[in-house]
Amino acid sequence: MTEFAAVLVFLGALVAFVGSLGLLRLPTFFERVHPPTMGSTVGTMLILAGSMLHFSVLESRLVLHEVLIAAFLTFSTPVTYLLLGRAALGRRPPN
Amino acid sequence: MSLEPAIILVTLAQILLALAMAFALARLLVGPRAQDRVLALDTMYINAMLLILTFGVAGGTRQFFEAALAIGMLGHVSTAAAAKFLLRGEVIE
Predict the structure, then answer these.
(1) All structural domains of chain B with their residue ranges
(2) For the CA atoms of A11, A14, A19, A20, what is the dihedral angle to 10 degrees?
């Protein structure tokens, strides 16, 4: 069971890594808004699932504290990127 | 974390997350406009939260969970405030 949790954590870290790589590589701002959401949705959910599984096995009871972070990020991520996208739309182009 | 492959996988996950934070830091330094820097800062917050969660899994202690929760909340508030400032020129009107 612990190896399965480690695999979940590794996959989540891989998804977050690919998201940050896209943030560095893509050419324009509105393309760069997309990749970090990989890390803040799928990557976070995988790492939180791995953490829940690991601590549930470790303490031999159901540990669900990580659902707090998952629920909070589910609400906060769209709000953040919506505000940022609106701000980028409203700003005048350089020069 | 008593078995060997699990420790290797979690260490690799920590290295990947540290590299992801380095990429976001590079975008924060390079980023041509202010919204790029705000986006890179938000990505760094998310990656730092994931890295702290990974520390908790590797060490088997539950104290890291509260730190991850606080960093997630502060990241959202700071990014929303910075985006509001870029949108209006003021944070609280």
Answers:
(1) 4-88
(2) 140
Q: For the domain made up of B4-88, give the CATH fold.
A: Helix Hairpins (1.10.287)
- List chain B residues with CB under 8 Å of A66: 53, 65
pTM of the model: 0.89
- Give yes or no for B89 touching A (CB within 8 A): no
Instruction: Give residues with Cβ within 8 angstroms of B4, minimum separation 6.
Output: none
ipTM of the complex as predicted:
0.89
| Contact at CB, B24 and A80, closer than 8 angstroms | no
Min Cα distance B67 → chain A (Å) is 11
Digit-coded pLDDT (tens) for A18-70? 999 999 998 888 888 999 998 889 999 999 999 999 999 888 888 888 899 89
